[in-house]
């Protein structure tokens, strides 16, 4: 039976837009070294921390939680150059950190070592050692590297941001340094976290894309993160070679770690990218229940493979990740090469606003046990006309990915692709309150609210897709 829904549409701006300052702006502190301008942090002066205590995993990997046992949907902003830039112009970096926090992020992902690829990093090298890279360029050790590292951790804490701590490059197909030397470096970082507090570390990674940044084995990577792991921090090794999402590869590159790391499928259309995020736990079923998307697709020219500038898609990808038990990183061109204010890039504001909507509805969504899709008989939301792309189907969505609560009375779904008109049926055993959510080009979040009876239908239209939040009305 069809149902003509009277929609209540609201467009909500879930954070005050941050004014984009000129990237060349300077102030009197720019010429002061990080060591000289570091401040002893005082809790009253720090921005609000992203979570209580340290980030950890719930028992049986049911989700990410903080020290108060509250569920967390982790969200980092990619700022790979953050530490490198901090050693040169700390005040600029501190301004950027504050802007990231104001947008609603928990953490940043940064690299603690850069310099192997001179075409990319000449003049931006950061390292506790001197060496000659494969381009025959001599890289000099960063003066007072560990003092500046501690100042960087303090600055991030003062901004209210935790750190996804990764390595940029230790070589190419082979490492320039003995593993024991890298472990010693990470031990020094661990001592900084001992002093400053482990609430400052969201995730400790061994290296970014190990297969092309040092050629280190999973056993080597596990040694590199051991100084963090031994102190109870969440750790990950690396995305598998060529960013494989096969369960066997994810397993090989996560054994002994806390989570698997994935860099996200970037090819195909938006539905294909969404499907890959969902399929890692649904089809692949890696040994680790929780993952971390540390370098997915994003906007801007430096995202050379599968670039996505579409705000609607960027926000939907993040929602799909949280619903598929994966932390999310907002990746972007200037998050790789810091050549513009991060707040000027598409998706920067929309992604944390989308997280706020999902978190308000289902902060515990990673705990929910049921993953299904609209083509299955047990799905609580299904297309009435089939799925576009299947034989003989000329209209309807291309896919519905669903994460359902154990009660069978609540779910989160991502509907995407296909061709209008798209008619869906409510298969919850109740009258449901349904909210259709998407990000708009101005980075605000639009929400359309419906009330749909059991077995009744409603139509949905979109350009990329919709996040669907549905639950039975209270009895």
What is the number of domains? 2
CATH superfamily of the largest domain: Glycosidases
CATH-scheme architecture of the largest domain:
Alpha-Beta Barrel
What does the average pLDDT come to? 91
Please report the total strand number as a whole number.
23
| Gyration radius from CA atoms, angstroms | 23 Å
CATH class group of the largest domain: Alpha Beta
The major sheet is characterized as: 8 strands, parallel
Strand order of the largest sheet: 11-10-9-6-5-14-13-12
Q: Return residue spans where pLDDT drops below 50 for at least 5 consecutive residues.
A: 1-44
- Determine the strand fraction and express it as a percent band: 15-25%
Roughly what percent helix? 25-40%
- CA-to-CA gap between the ends? 23 Å
In DSSP terms (H or I, runs of 4 or more residues), the helix count works out at 12
Shape: elongated
Structural class assignment? alpha/beta
Q: Kindly report the CATH topology of the largest domain.
A: TIM Barrel
